[in-house]
Every structure is written in C-alpha cells, then in structure tokens.
C-alpha cells in the first residue's frame, strides 16, 4: 500500500494519519521519537506493509512481473493498489476522494514535531501537486514509477514495470478487490490490540 491506502486505513480504524504517512521515513523505535498516537500510527503502517506482502494473492501477483523487475514488484504493486483504491474510492469511503484528501491534509499538517527533511519535502509536493487525486489516472502509475526510478538509482527497474502492469491490468484490478477488504479487516483488528 502507498500513501492513499495508508491514510484511508488510518481513517478506517481511527489511527493517527500523520504517523501512518510518516512511517516510511522513520527508522527504529517510533515510541522514542514521537508521541504515542503518532508512534501507534507508524506501527500500524508497518503492520499493514507486512500483512499485505505476506498475502498469497499478492505474492502470486509478483510473478506477473518479469525476472528483471520482480525484485521491485512489491513497490510497483503498492502504487497499483493506490491507483485502484482511487479508481474505486466510492466503494470504500462515503466522501469523495477530493474531500478526503483535503481532510487528510488538514489533519496531517497539524503534526510538526521531529519530522525528517525528506518527509517534509515529499509531503509538501504530495499535497501541492495533488498526487493522491492523480492516482485515479492510469498514466499516474507510470509517472510515479518513473519518478521513483529516477530518484533512487537502486530502484531503476521500476521504470520497466509499467508495461507489465498494463499487460496484467485486469488481473491486478481483480486481485485488488479480493485483497483490499481483507487488509481493511486485518487493520481494524490490529488497531484494537494497540489500545
């Protein structure tokens, strides 16, 4: 799952949105770096990442990618899942995507403590350029993957994933509808253990 899904899942189970968005930028024990609600959000994000990566349906999707891109296929799938969530947003949330993104931004911006510079720069661009709303467009998947490949040379194979996503688009969409409701349920159950 990528930014949109993590914010949506946080909203589904009343977890801290800033923590769920911040998680990829925090190393080590979040409870020594952030207040408990934010740290709980970071831990929830980590749970979601581990849960979805272990799902048999998601593991099978990785084999839709070629040998030379399979190493980065998990990252590519995270972007694809956000795309399908944006496309099918009304199936999962009562408010419009635009309304939700405005709401999420207003909540996330309230937390300004101990933020890594990379996160500050990323989040500023994300809100300004409306990445989460753009996820609805199929072309945004390729744009995001190309941007990530250019920014991080170790992930250069991401630039090659778009064609494989296009070739398997219908199958990936089918799997999303199986996987995402399970992720919501698991996230809600996990959240109950944090309280």
UniProtKB/TrEMBL annotation:
Pfam family, one: ACP_PD
Record protein name field: DUF479 domain-containing protein
One BP annotation, GO: fatty acid biosynthetic process
InterPro entries per UniProt: ACP_PD (IPR007431)
GO molecular function annotation: [acyl-carrier-protein] phosphodiesterase activity
Keyword tags: Fatty acid biosynthesis, Fatty acid metabolism, Hydrolase, Lipid biosynthesis, Lipid metabolism
Organism of this sequence: Photobacterium indicum
